[in-house]
């Protein structure tokens, strides 16, 4: 069906943002994406979005495993759907690091890094 091939956009938030943040609600309800019927997923950082931390691992700007898990899960569940990722701020840093680590092995069709703090030591 068409639903199986509907593109999916994954949003990776900035430092203190999550799926309830106003800026992500605007991105997630982008009229262009909605008009096209694209699905939007927000990948909340651990401990954000009202979800308690239940593991020994905390979110940090270099942790790409959660992004990898979200991407792989969505690809497995929707193998015909193109996956796109938009990361903002620290989310952009995580996105670029993930893409660099996985290279051609990632099922991501396209990605946008917005306002990435390329050098976190200089960005403080």
Descriptive overview:
- The protein has 124 residues and is an alpha/beta fold.
- The chain has helices spanning 22-28, 31-36, 65-77, 90-102, and strands at residues 8-12, 39-42, 83-88, 108-114.
- Helix 4 (90-102) links the parallel strand 3 and strand 4 (108-114).
- It is globular and about 45 Å long.
- The mean pLDDT is 81.
- Pfam families: Abhydrolase_1 (PF00561).
- InterPro entries: AB_hydrolase_1, AB_hydrolase_4_sf, AB_hydrolase_fold.
**Beta strands, count:** 4
Query: CATH superfamily, please?
Result: Alpha/Beta hydrolase fold, catalytic domain
Shape: globular
- The stretches of 5 or more residues where confidence is low (pLDDT under 50) are none
Strand content range:
15-25%
Identify the quaternary structure here. Answer: single chain
Specify the structural class: alpha/beta
Q: Return the average pLDDT rounded to an integer.
A: 81
Protein name: Embryogenesis-associated protein EMB8-like
InterPro entries: AB_hydrolase_1, AB_hydrolase_4_sf, AB_hydrolase_fold
Region (Disordered): 14-33
Domain AB hydrolase-1: 7-119
